[in-house]
C-alpha cells in the first residue's frame, strides 16, 4: 500500500505539470484554453508581429527581418495544412467508432518496448487513437493524446487520462515523461518540416535518458497488392492533377514524386470529382507499370524504382452503411464531397492522407538532432521503426 501511495503521488505531481497552458479536464479529456479571440505574439526588437486567430491560424503582419522570419516559420510548422485537416482530422472524427472496433490487437514489438520499461515509468502515447496501448504495462502510468476529439472520447470513456493535442505542438512540459511512443502517426503529416517537428516534440517531452519509439508505414509494403488499392498523389496537386477539381490522382506524364512542398501546404484542396477513384487508380497504375504475371499470379513491375519513389497516397477507409450515421458526420461528408458511396461494397468510402516512408527516411529526420541518438531501428509488419534515447 505504501508503494502504491508513492506511485500515486508521483503520478499526480507529474500530471498537474503536464500542460504549459491552462486546461479544462472533463471526464479525463484535457483541452487547452486560449482566452480571447486573438493573441498577439511580439517579435523582439521589431514592430512586426504574428497574430493567432480564433481558428488557430498564425498570420504574419508587416515585413520581418531574417531572424523574425525564422520565428514565424517555426510557428507556421505548427499550423495544420488543409490537406491534413480534411483528409486526416475530419476523416478520423467521422470513422472513429468503426476504426476503434478494428484496432484491438497489440503489435508485439510495441508491447515488448512498453513491457521493458522500468517500474513506475510515466509513458506518453502521442497519437493514441482508441488507446489500445494505454495501460498495457500495469506497472507504468500512461497519458495519451490525439488530434481526434472523437477518438479521445472513446479513450476517456474507458477511464484513460487523455488529451486533445497536436503531435507537432504537444501540451506537456519539457522532460515530464520517462518514455514516449508514436505509433502510426507521423505518416499523416504532409510536410517534412512537420514530421521533423513532431519527432523533436517527442524527444523534448521525455527526460534525459528517456526512450522514444516511433513507427511509420513503409514504402516497402510486404503485400504489394495494397498499392493498387491506394490513390497516388501528385507533388503539384493543383496544376498537374487530372481534370477539373481536386484532389485527384497523379498525372501519368509525371512519375517522379517527392514530399509536398512546404510552400504549398495550406493551398486549399477542392472537392472530389464524380469519376470513380478505382477506375482512375487502375489506369494510372497501368501507366506506371508494364505488368506481367508470375507463376504465383503476383504483379511484376517493369520499373520498380518509379513505384518506390511514390510516397504520397490516399488510402481508402470503407465505413459500412450500417455503421454510418445517416444524419450525422457521414451524411455531411457525402454532401461536401469528403466521402462517396460504394453501393457494391455497401460502404461510405473516405480517403485518408498518408506519406509512406522509405528506408532510412526516419533516420535522416533525426540525423542533425544533437539531443538524441538512435539506439535501435527495425522493419516490422510493413513499418519502419526507430527507438531514440534522449542524451541531453
TrEMBL record:
Residues in coiled coil: none
CDD domains: AdoMet_MTases (cd02440)
Molecular functions (GO terms): S-adenosylmethionine-dependent methyltransferase activity; tRNA (5-carboxymethyluridine(34)-5-O)-methyltransferase activity; tRNA binding
One annotated GO biological process: tRNA methylation
Methyltransferase type domain mapped to chain residues: 124-214
Entry-linked Pfam families: Methyltransf_11
Keywords attached to this entry: Methyltransferase, Transferase
GO CC term, one of those recorded: cytoplasm
Entry protein name: Methyltransferase type 11 domain-containing protein
